[in-house]
Amino acid sequence: MTELLAAMLLAVAWSGPGLAADEEADKFKDVQIETVSVAGGIYMLVGQGGNIGVSTGEDGVFLIDDQYAPLTERIKAAVAALSDRPVRFVLNTHWHGDHTGGNENLAREGTVIVAHDQVYERMSRENFLAAWSMTVPASPKGALPVISFNDTITFHLNGHDIHAVHVEHAHTDGDSIVHFRAANVIHTGDIWFNGMYPFIDSDTGGSLDGVIAAVDVILKLADEQTKIIPGHGPLSDRKGLLGYRKFLLDVRERVGKLLQQGKSLDEIRAAKPLADYEATLGKGFLSTDKFLEVAVAALGKWQH
């Protein structure tokens, strides 16, 4: 995804009611929802925005995130192909609009929205994202979580203990990872952007140290057979996450060293500290230059 497209989609996700419905829908007209089988009764839906986790069974449907509002009907159709039961819960992994954009539509049909306390707080007020020079308005009341938690919460549904754990000051200040213990499946939210540079939202509590700490939490829960659903990118496993961790450590060491030398952002970009990652990670959500801007901001915030 190019940075221009990313910015356009962010504008759609967080523009509030002022954007014309036909203009909003047009940006998503070609998006199709792909269903990926993960484990028994557990799926990943891929469309535009964060990957959606799905649990199906006799107790109903449990969703992890819900992408953008214009995609709700397509997401519901994909879910209906898996289960004839209602969507009972949506757990938002964090507050960003590409993970919470469908909240209001689903809540209107009786779905209960659940998230960490800071997700409720962030969605309830205006936020400024310096990386995009964008002020994000408060979400409408109908999109807000009606249940929020401080540390952990467990859902006992469809034969699973679905355990959500808050990880602090990571991608944001309200991130949760979701662990299907018996099924050995983990949804990372935006702790992991698989196959692309990550966005770390230091304006709303995110930090590079926090992302690394959160990755370590996930690695402690995972074994060689664990299926890991990233916030963005393809389904993966513990080995893939270890590779991502190495990248994060390289960023901290290389960019941190240049910052300690007093280098400016332009000088850091000119030094090309991530040249060996550009071919594999530089064609996704962020370019290398944009990611270095994000990394510089994230290195100075919320040190662990």
Short description:
By secondary structure, the protein is an alpha/beta fold. The chain is built from eleven helices and 14 strands. It is 34% helix and 21% strand.
Would you mind describing this structure in some detail?
The chain has 304 residues and is of the alpha/beta class. It is built from eleven helices and 14 strands. The strands form three sheets. It has a seven-stranded mixed sheet. Strands 10-11-12-13-14 form a five-stranded mixed sheet. A two-stranded antiparallel sheet has the order 7-8. Strand 1 and strand 2 form a beta hairpin. It has one domain (3-242): Metallo-beta-lactamase, Chain A, CATH 3.60.15. The protein has helices at residues 3-13, 21-26, 72-80, 97-100, 103-108, 117-123, 208-221, 238-260, 265-271, 278-281, 288-299, and strands spanning 34-39, 42-46, 52-55, 61-64, 87-91, 112-116, 127-129, 134-136, 147-149, 152-157, 160-167, 175-180, 185-187, 227-229. Mean pLDDT is 93; it is low at 15-20. The two termini are 31 Å apart. The radius of gyration is 18 Å and the shape is globular.
Give short descriptive properties of this protein.
Metallo-beta-lactamase, Chain A; seven-stranded mixed beta sheet; alpha/beta; single chain; five-stranded mixed beta sheet; 304 residues; 11 helices
Query: What is the number of beta strands?
Result: 14
Low-confidence segments: 15-20
Backbone shape: globular
Largest sheet composition: 7 strands, mixed
Helix content: 25-40%
Write the layout of secondary structure elements.
Blueprint: H1 3-13, H2 21-26, E1 34-39, E2 42-46, E3 52-55, E4 61-64, H3 72-80, E5 87-91, H4 97-100, H5 103-108, E6 112-116, H6 117-123, E7 127-129, E8 134-136, E9 147-149, E10 152-157, E11 160-167, E12 175-180, E13 185-187, H7 208-221, E14 227-229, H8 238-260, H9 265-271, H10 278-281, H11 288-299
Parallel strand pairs: 4-5, 5-6, 6-9, 13-14
Antiparallel strand pairs: 1-2, 2-3, 3-4, 7-8, 10-11, 11-12, 12-13
Helix pairs in contact: 7-8, 8-11
